[in-house]
Each structure stands twice: as C-alpha cells, then as structure tokens.
Amino acid sequence: MRRLVAETRLHPAELILPLFVREGISEPRPISSMPGVVQHTRETLRKAVVEAAEAGLGGVMLFGVPAVQDATGSEGTNPDGILQQAIRDTVAEVGDQLVVMSDLCLDEYTDHGHCGVLAADGSVDNDATLERYAEMARVQADAGVHLVGPSGMMDGQIGVVRRALDEAGHQQVGILAYTAKYASAFYGPFREAVGSSLRGDRKSYQQDPANARESLRELELDLAEGADLVMVKPAMAYLDILRQVADASPVPVAAYQVSGEYAMVEAAAANGWIDRDRMILETLTSIRRAGAEQILTYWAMDAVRML
Ligand code: PBG
C-alpha cells in the first residue's frame, strides 16, 4: 500500500555522480573526510564513468585536481589540463549514454583557493573572473562536455558563459547554473577532495544562510542570462530554499547533496550510531520531495544498488 501511494520516487536517471580526477597520480587516492570517495587517476575515472553509465545514472559531474595551482588558475584554461582530458575520456567512453558535466570554477586551480582571481587589495575581482570563466567554458566545450556547471557565484556568470559558448560555436552546450549557493560549512571535506586551501572565506560572493529571498532574485537573473537547469546547494539544510525555487522555476531544478552532508552520515554510520542505508535513501527522498528533480550525490552508485 505504501508503494502504491508513495508521492515521491527515486530513479537512477535523476542522479548525478560527482567525480574527482587528479593529475599525475598512478593510484587513486582516498579522501579521508569522505570515506569511499577517491581522487581518480585518468584510468580509474574511465572505469568509474562506465560503471555509472551501466548503473543508469543520469550524469556525472567532473572536477579536476591539477598538479599545479597558481594565482589565476591557469590549468583551468589549459586545453590539455586534467579536467579537459577527463572530459574527453568520459565523452569517449559514455558520452552517448549519460550527460557529461564539468565544474566551471577556479578554486580547484588557484593557489589562494578562491573561486576567482584577486584584485590588488586581495578581494575577488568579479569581472576579471568572468573573463577567466568565458575561457574555461570554451576549453571545456571544445573537450566535448554536454553541460557546464558554473559554481563560482560571480555576478553575471551565466550570461558571460552563454555568450562565450555561442560565439565559439557551442550553442548546443547547456548550462547547469549553481543558482542559490550558500557560503556553507558543509563544503569542508570538498577542500580535501580538490586539494584546496582557502585563504579567508567566500562571504563576498556566496549567499548568507540567513537569507531566502535572495535565492529567488538569483533565479530570475540566471534564467534571464540563459540557465538551462538551476541548482540549490547545499541540499539538506536548504530544503525550504529548494521548495521556493522549485515552485518558481520554469526550468528543471537540481540540488547538490554536498561533501559535508556525505561526511556526517558516513561518520555517524562508522560509529554504529545510525543506519547508513536508510539514511541515504531518506535524505535523497526528502531532497526529491522538497522539489529537486535532479540530485548530485556522492552516494549515487550506492543509491542505485538499493533502489
Ligand atoms: C566550487 C565548488 C565547491 C563545491 C562544488 N563546487 C566548493 C565551494 O564552493 O566552496 C562543493 C561541493 C561539495 O562540498 O561537495 N568549485
């Protein structure tokens, strides 16, 4: 009876698996704060994306971890940089079976760990960063990505990326906009995952957890600038935001169950304090119920096994 009347169902095709690929390693490296998640080599990434396709996932979101970081995040726009290689590998393996997405942001590539380039006074320079994002969009699209995911929360980023793609002949490449992205402690383990040490904080460009209305304004702007999908992040502590955005959005709404959400459950489960599998399905179901139609989750493969 419960199955018959369930209002919310999870399906593998709406799950997106985030994957990390690191340059210059010969064995995958575990991420200690995210047990079960690794930094892949190019070879193990190939295997992981094939498994993701076989499991029927809707997509993968690729994050590159370069060997060298610098002030402007040069590797992010290197046509042969690790992310661009990973995109090419993934498209070659499974590009006809799932949606290949890539993180479009500089924090993995900068030595100061910010999502953009810095002005002389040390603050993040919004408009100089947009020029870097335009270039990143071009190289990622040249590598064959299907959807770029601008996650840096610079003002005007969706419009700039859309124009850059169109001008380079990549009209068919879509944009998954990180629309409502909060300055959150839940991203803690992600720092380890991408080898980033952040100087300062992201409060000058990510949203204040105290505020909801701003998310609807961000939604309006991203839609006007050309977003194809919009996203709320983190997920579980922001289900109210997700509901408001889902009610207002004419395009699909995704949510990102982030590294800290994963780490909390894994840590409690490792202590025997909670039932891990039930927790995974309950959190995903709740995110879905709150209005997300696609979910980025490090548990995508676990979830499919349980479903
Ligand atoms: C920015 C980016 C971050 C995450 C995804 N893209 C970090 C941040 O904004 O500080 C976090 C994802 C997670 O915590 O799982 N490139």
From TrEMBL:
Record: active site: 181, 233
Organism this protein belongs to: Streptomyces tateyamensis
E.C. designation(s): 4.2.1.24
Name of the protein described by the UniProt record: Delta-aminolevulinic acid dehydratase
InterPro entries for the chain: ALAD, ALAD_AS, Aldolase_TIM
Subunit structure and binding partners: Homooctamer.
Any one GO molecular function term: porphobilinogen synthase activity
Catalytic reactions of this protein: 2 5-aminolevulinate = porphobilinogen + 2 H2O + H(+)
List of residues binding 5-aminolevulinate 1: 191, 202
Matching Pfam families: ALAD
EC primary class: lyase
GO cellular component, one term: cytosol
Associated pathway: Porphyrin-containing compound metabolism; protoporphyrin-IX biosynthesis; coproporphyrinogen-III from 5-aminolevulinate: step 1/4
